[in-house]
Amino acid sequence: MGRQAYLTKIALGRSAFEPSQTTASSSLEYLQLESARQEISPAARESDINKYIQLYDERGNPINPRAYEHGRRFREAQNDVLSSIGVVQRRRSPSEDLPGSYEERREQLSNEVAVGNVITLTSILTRNVCTWWIGSLRDRILTFRIRDAIPLSQIVKYEWQGGSLLYAGYASDCLSILISSTINYANYELRGLDRLLATRRTKLRVRRWRNQIRTCFRFFVELAIYPITYRVKLQQLGLVPANHLPHWKAFIPFSRWSPMRPISLHPIMSAASSTSIMGKVIMGTKVGIITALTSPLVLIVLERFLAHWIGSVTVEALETSIIHPDNPDFATDHSVKQRSDQLHGARGKSPHVIRTAIQNIMATLGWGIIASSSVATYGQNLEPLQTAEAGEPQMLEGGGRQVTNAGRLQLPPVHPYSVSDVTPQVNSSSEVGAPPSSTVSEASQDDSDPRIRITSREGIVEMEVRLPPHALVAHTDVSGTGPASPNGGNTSSPIPVYDAELAPYHRVTQLSLLPSQELGVYVKSQIVGWVTMPLRLVSLRLVAAHFVASNPDGVGSLRILAPLPSLHGLNGWSIGRPVGLLLCRVALCGAVELAIDLGLWTVQWALVTWAGKNYFGWGTL
Prior knowledge:
Residues 405-450 are annotated as: Disordered. By secondary structure, the protein is mostly helical.
């Protein structure tokens, strides 16, 4: 609407929140658009000073499409000039050199992510189904006494005939994972602790204990699902039926059905006949100490916390060391997922020692690369260049001024994990011999200074760039006749800068990252299993002893608990032979599990490659 009509509306009492006009209007002087996508008539678009038509949007605000278009072209011209002289580096448009429109590419990308999620869930279920029995067999080998002469095949045959080896405890374990994941995810989404601290306006001293409070919350979650975890251990050991869930009364702490109840609770309670307050305190202290010693609660929770911590500190090193697509050709939300994993606690910063060890192992197996080696090698190659002529001053002339001991421009590396295209950072000091010009006008009068002039005439943007002669010569030396390596001896040549356009682009989606992620999951499971093996051995035997003491008639005569090795009255051979045999059997179980994992990974890699090439255009861009 026009200005007069708008003022009239205000004078008549129109509310500020009321739309300016329900329907679009037009006249010889102005034109109001019904929506932002409405086509503008040629008369309004090609108006001049003699015949000007004012445009308004659907809310009555004046607009000028020609000014917007001129500003867009002006910004593009500025970016072109700055990128041509090397000040900035322009990013490739998402729709450039790609078949189809931008919307089609986004839809195809979302479909690819959805297919990747489906294959990921299928792979997790398939791996659990195929390797659950080998985990149950390993737990039984760690817990019960087995004769030395029995081979592993006979052990598998005997346990298989029992009918409780294949999926023993799988349903209960899935239920415990579902409950704990739901509680932790709800806590992350609702941010109850952060909201409470913000509402109460707690002090900084209290807010520093935020991580410890989260750890305590996870501990209470483990306490809540402990009866299910205890039942899973018993089912994996073959002590209870495999298809039964714990009774609801087992969730009542220290009840007759609760697994938190220690073995010798009744003798202590009967011995403490005092009714005084001090006697009750002493009795409660004794009950708590014996509960911690005779109940497997502490060891099971400690084992789960240790496994979670090891997984969180190794996943970052595994994902960065295993070869994976890292130069996306299209923007994805993978970084958002990584940030979410960090907030959940599933991803932590790996220590330097662990990261170095994992990188060396992956590089030895041929599954990864050592990212830091190229940076170190490049830095060593640059040291002779920096110190060769340290005693001689370096003089550079430009723009009528002389610069002594000028240092190269410090540019951070674009991709720190690239092998060949890494830009190191060189720190040096520069001393300016003559002060620069005090004003811009004085500097612009020098013919050697670079000049940039952008003009617009009749809708056409013209650019003019003038570089000084020494800059043109330096550019020619760099592009054609410069040395091929940093050690070439020509100190005036700049450090090679990483060019993102020369690096091959990858498809970085959930589907393309699936093989490398699953390989990292397999390696992480092996690391977690072997590191937590001693604690798992003690906790499993304590669970079996706790169940046998609570249910002396519920265990068959063939289930005999293996005692822990003792150093009293035994020589080295008597101790080493059972321990070595146990380790060999456990290592053989781990080798079988790893072989199954690698076989599943091969099938998964073939499926992912086939789906990517046939449905998502992999290898054709």
